[in-house]
Specification:
Helices cover 41% and strands 18% of the residues. It is an alpha/beta fold. The protein has one domain (7-144, 191-283, 303-335, 372-389): NAD(P)-binding Rossmann-like Domain (Rossmann fold, 3-Layer(aba) Sandwich), CATH 3.40.50.720. Strands 6-5-4-7-12-13-14 form a seven-stranded parallel beta sheet, sandwiched between helices. A two-stranded antiparallel ribbon has the order 1-15. The structure holds 1,4-dihydronicotinamide adenine dinucleotide (NAI). 1,4-dihydronicotinamide adenine dinucleotide binds at residues 51-57, 75-78, 90, 114-116, 141-144, 225-227, 272, 274-275, 277-280.
Length: 390
């Protein structure tokens, strides 16, 4: 049944309950145009992207297709419209990406299901075997709230500290006031659960499953995304539950390198910039840091979104000769964010920001623009008064 309606944003806290299909298509189109204009790269041509429908994973899929000319298989966990509600943005993004890729003569298929499950891994392996033979790059870009393991246990990730309470300034997104937020410490069980969900165990499982099935090309590369951030957010991020999971992710790269050495597989961690995505908007205290960071980086002409970050990953860090790594073997796309001059300015603003000056000192409009764009809203060339098929 075709359902047609006018779709408006319904924002609740850090989430929008609706998504606009035409606006999501516009979002994907703009990212494709950006990639096309960067030109081509000599990178892998058969790419599996796990978490391919929004944020960094979507940008990675677009870069694979439009820089490398790659065939892409995307895995995501998105909701279709139920007739009353719209689908999730990642659902519309994926439809749009596939239609652009197909009309540009590129292979693109997607599997919408739980990437943590054995069933989805098997479906993906069958698809690779039937359509591509093998993949030569695997991008792991999952951001998930929970994971059910093969034994039926469900683990829930939490965004908490791992030591004491952490209290700092926080931006109340509802009324633009600066308040204080306190993030409480996690129990050991909660920390372990977060590592189960956001650590590298499932990444290793994927790589082993692909290798065991004989669908991982010799010399394939794999990359997962991480974040470090400034000292300011260390208690909630780097030293928090999510940071513990990211440490595990990093250790998992070493495990993959070791266990798949016989296939000459190389695993990388790319440390990316803080950006507004569905996953990151949920972390307390962090959105205020983002809004200040956006202000400072835009003023210096250094601001990037997901697509610019991944464009730089492909063109400057990964496929322009030997990969550019730091002393710990990681790719650093957070190099500009963590530059001393940027961080110094951010910290100066952090100290003096309050409800009266927030609009002047932080990029509130930029934050919300990214937020609305994520759900397909606020594109000036989309007519939101028109009925659309959801
Ligand atoms: P996002 O929320 O935009 O994307 C998450 C993706 O995972 C979506 O495609 C979603 O459908 C998929 N997904 C979630 N649960 C799934 C499941 N059970 N099965 C299959 N697919 C599932 O998130 P974002 O921000 O792009 O994050 C991707 C990675 O990048 C994460 O590892 C995150 O920690 C990392 N990162 C994010 C930064 C940020 O500021 N947003 C900064 C640096 C790293």
């Amino acid at each position: 049944m075709v359902i047609i309606m006018i779709v408006e944003p319904k924002v609740r806290g850090f989430i929008c309950a609706t998504a606009h299909p035409v606006g999501c298509r516009e979002n994907v189109k703009r990212q494709i145009e950006y990639m096309k204009q960067l030109g081509t790269c000599d990178g892998p041509r058969k790419v599996l992207i796990i978490g391919a429908s929004t944020g960094y994973g979507l940008a990675s899929r677009i870069a694979s297709a439009y820089c490398n000319g790659a065939s892409t298989i995307g895995v995501m966990f998105e909701k279709e419209s139920n007739g009353r509600r719209t689908a999730t943005p990642g659902y519309y993004n994926t439809k749009a990406f596939e239609s652009f890729a197909h009309s540009d003569g590129l292979y693109a298929k997607s599997i919408n299901g739980d990437a943590f499950s054995k069933e989805v891994k098997e479906q993906v392996i069958d698809l690779i075997r039937n359509d591509l033979g093998s993949v030569d790059m695997v991008i792991y870009s999952l951001a998930a709230p929970r994971r059910t393991t093969a034994d039926g246990i469900t683990y829930q990730s939490v965004l908490k500290t791992t030591s004491s309470d952490f209290t700092n300034k926080s931006w109340n997104l509802k009324d633009n006031t600066i308040t204080e937020a306190t993030i409480t410490p996690a129990t050991e069980e909660e920390t372990l659960a977060t590592i189960k969900v956001m650590g590298g165990e499932d990444w290793v499982d994927w790589m082993n499953a692909l290798a065991d099935a004989g669908v991982l090309a010799d010399g394939a590369i794999t990359i997962a995304y991480s974040y470090l951030g400034p000292k300011l957010t260390y208690p909630v991020y780097f030293n928090g539950t999510i940071g513990m999971a990211k440490k595990h992710l990093q250790e998992s790269a070493a495990i993959i390198n070791q266990s798949l050495e016989k296939y000459h597989v190389k695993a990388y961690i790319s440390v990316n910039k803080a950006l507004v995505t569905q996953a990151s908007a949920a972390i307390p205290i962090v959105p205020l840091y983002f809004a200040i960071l956006y202000k400072v980086m835009k003023r210096k002409g250094l601001h990037e979104g997901c697509i610019e970050q991944i464009g730089r990953l492909f063109h400057e860090k990964l496929f322009s000769g030997t990969p550019v790594l730091d002393e710990e073997g990681r790719i650093r796309l957070d190099d500009w964010e963590l530059r001393d001059d940027i961080q110094q300015e951010v910290m100066e603003i952090w100290d003096k920001i309050n409800t009266e000056n927030i609009k002047e000192l932080a990029d509130i409009d930029g934050y919300w623009e990214d937020f609305y764009h994520m759900f397909g809203f606020h594109f000036s060339n989309v007519d939101y008064s028109q009925d659309v098929e959801i």
